[in-house]
Amino acid sequence: METIGIFFGGKSPEHDISIITGQLIISGLKGMGFTVVAVYLDKENRWHLGDQYSSMQFFRGNQASSKKTGDYAIDLAESSGKIVFRKNGWGNKKINIDLAFPAFHGRYGEDGTMQGLFEMFGIPYVGCDVTSSALTMDKVFTKELYRDLGLPTSKFLSINKKDWQNQQKNLKEKIASQLRGPLFVKPARLGSSIGIAKISNPQELEQAIEVALHYDDKVIIEESVENVMDITCAVLGNDDLTSSLLQESNFKEKFFSYEDKYLNDGGAQLGKSENNMIIPAGLDAPTTQKIQEMAKTVFKAFGCSGLARVDFLYNKKTKDIFVNEVNTLPGTLYHHLWKKSGIELPNLLQRLLDLARERHHYRQKFISTFESSVLKQADWSNKLGPKGA
To answer: Which residue from 70, 85, 71 is spatially nearest to 117, judged by alpha carbons?
Structure first.
């Protein structure tokens, strides 16, 4: 019987959100009768497998943080067409994973790194591939591609840590001359609104950049869209795409903060806060359809597969639409939005598994090796010099 590994946690500021998503998937798949293994990476990226990691109660205590070593290690010799975990210490216990369901958020998981591991071992996995995961993780690359595609997005600049340290005065002048406030300052490769600040005067700029640089060595500075309606559209599929209803997200702070997303009133992105979500969004039919089609365009342009969430900013006064961010592993799969769109969690999970197998089967058709005679003809013996040289 196929064993599905749910991979979550990891060395990321979004570690705790990943645990919540992982637990949702584990519970859902177990309820559907699948054989499931919880694969938890702690904050030092050590591997832990076992039934205890399938319980939210375990993570509410201090048990997870008290572990000093990993429970398992990957057996590189046996991991081909599957991932084989072998228990550390005495004994020979091993666990085989036939299909991977990643539930990471942020670095070391949502950014293509873990997807690369799955590719190397040749197993099917849920969600976007290495390239699309890496591109969409970087807000600067994302907006540059929007610009090349002619998709509307807010005006922006990016800076890196080294340039900020050496050319701070020049960069402040460049930002002041090219961007009009209010401005958003964000780490380029982080989600969940961590490290983000909205600033309304130049005096706040330096501190906002310094905070963002604590989380990443690249920062994006964007013009704020005012009179804003924050809109989300989820997309499901590989080639034949389905878009969700639109969600309008309300927020109490200057922007959709970490607290609004996960804490206030139960958490909007956890699907628990009816006060912070309007589904469907209060937009007319033509605007709704336009945003849904734009979401599909973005999904295809980045080569996404399985599932992604595309965020939009809508100026209620000017009626302008701006494409914002792409999330290839949206928190809790945005199952609350899919439910409102007519797809219950079990159907969503089954569809994601089917899409993973479909893509894996399709890629197996391509030739990955090439036979040549180049090594037989290569002779470097007379070019290497004396032995030991």
So the answer is: 85
